[in-house]
Automatic annotation (TrEMBL):
<comment type="similarity">
    <text>Belongs to the aldehyde dehydrogenase family.</text>
</comment>
<keyword id="KW-0560">Oxidoreductase</keyword>
<feature type="active site">
    <location>
        <position position="245"/>
    </location>
</feature>
<dbReference type="InterPro" id="IPR029510">
    <property type="entry name" value="Ald_DH_CS_GLU"/>
</dbReference>
<dbReference type="InterPro" id="IPR016162">
    <property type="entry name" value="Ald_DH_N"/>
</dbReference>
<dbReference type="InterPro" id="IPR016161">
    <property type="entry name" value="Ald_DH/histidinol_DH"/>
</dbReference>
<dbReference type="Pfam" id="PF00171">
    <property type="entry name" value="Aldedh"/>
</dbReference>
<dbReference type="InterPro" id="IPR015590">
    <property type="entry name" value="Aldehyde_DH_dom"/>
</dbReference>
<dbReference type="InterPro" id="IPR016163">
    <property type="entry name" value="Ald_DH_C"/>
</dbReference>
<protein>
    <recommendedName>
        <fullName>Aldehyde dehydrogenase</fullName>
    </recommendedName>
</protein>
<feature type="domain" description="Aldehyde dehydrogenase">
    <location>
        <begin position="13"/>
        <end position="469"/>
    </location>
</feature>
<dbReference type="InterPro" id="IPR012394">
    <property type="entry name" value="Aldehyde_DH_NAD(P)"/>
</dbReference>
Amino acid sequence: MRDNLKHYINGEWVESTGSQTMEVMNPATEEVMGHISAGTKEDLDKAVKAARSAFPSFAQTSREYRIELLEKIADEYTKRKDELIEVMTEELGAPLKVSENVHFMMGYSHFKQAAEELRNFSFSEKREKSTIMKEPIGVSGLITPWNFPTNQTSTKIASAFAAGSTVVLKPAEITPYAAMILAEIFEAAGLPKGVFNLVNGTGQEVGNAISSHPDIDFVSYTGSGIAGSKVMENAAKDIKKVALELGGKSPLIVLDDADIKEAAGIAVSNITMNTGQVCTAATRVLVPKNMKASFEAEMKEQVAQLAVGDPQQDNQIGPLVAKKQQDRVQSYIQKGIDEGATVLAGGTGNPEGVSKGYFAKPTVFTDVSNDMTIAQEEIFGPVTTIITYESLDDAIEIANDTVYGLAGYVAGKDPEALRKAATGIRAGQITVNAAPSDYSAPFGGFKQSGIGREWGDFGIEEYLEPKAIMGMPE
Ligand code: NAD
């Protein structure tokens, strides 16, 4: 049991002011793996007070101090590698290799990248008649989801620390333990007391308390659109700045000169990665009408080779994070069938040979039209859809026929067509032919996918306020 009923406030693990606890489940075994406290408004108040009193001196720290701090954090994070991998496989159900190569590495990369950005970051510049300064925004309330326990926490925290802002974090109650290890990492790296605070609990209690707290200056939220909208509503009452990273229904445009094997590989990796629980996942695969049959055959073959099962073993796909998530994914698969799409691979029920854990079969729907529910709503599981198109203009129109705009993908050869598709998709991040991700590039969405950007210098900007001074003496 990984029971830890304390919150981390002002550099110490402290008892909760409430008595309620929450179970944390291992989604592969369906067993309780530990308990955490359901934090209260009073706990949150204490954390905000600590962050507020640590702010003036942390805001005054030098660039050099903060670069060194971020480097030390990256070192201490590396020392906890085995534990972080183990805990993320247990709480999230990510296969061990995914916990190591994706989750562990993403957290590490954000601390390193923030240190790197800071070396050349401009906190002050001269304009025609003014000096522009960028000052830390203050106390930042961070609310994170369960699908990337170290990535989403680390990108927000690293940017806040780089900017000189202090933090109160509420990690997802479904996957709280990796974030609790982060608190120990920061302590070992010598972070001053009160700069980082962590209160566990529900979105209803602690999440709402963060978004409506009068002494929090900025809320950075990642998760569902419904909760994101609630955060914005609460924050509006006292004109609090918000950054929101919400959902997506991202397109992959397969061009007519694409290598079918490679393009199908991209489509399949998008539902394999993190069991499809990825906000940027390409879940609408747009294929030229005349390629439909050969693309379907390739997808069927590749999906049949996927190893689904125990995340402690050498499988590519583990369970979904929770029973609620499993029910949601299964009901979307049923909805696709009910709406008349054809199941090319997978379908409802458990994968073959799996009897325990919150699993779903990797599922590919074809004969999908873009107005079907499975093409419009975020499923957040290993489910994708094949939609055919007539021309590239038609493909771009379908790609943009969504309320979301988080990511987009293009596969093919002709540079002009690749450019046209990449610039034509209205989304915050486009990947051409499986190009590697870039931690210095901004991450965030157009339309209902959110407001603001994370990662790199764009991420640091969110935790700063620009100030213009006219007539500043030399
Ligand atoms: P959620 O949005 O409810 O949870 C994410 C975080 O928000 C958690 O820390 C949660 O406690 C908190 N939260 C919930 N209600 C809140 C509120 N009113 N105020 C402040 N914080 C609140 O997500 P979920 O219910 O676990 O998942 C539902 C769906 O959300 C998923 O199926 C998926 O479609 C989407 N989702 C998206 C992302 C993403 O990265 N964009 C991540 C997780 C979930």
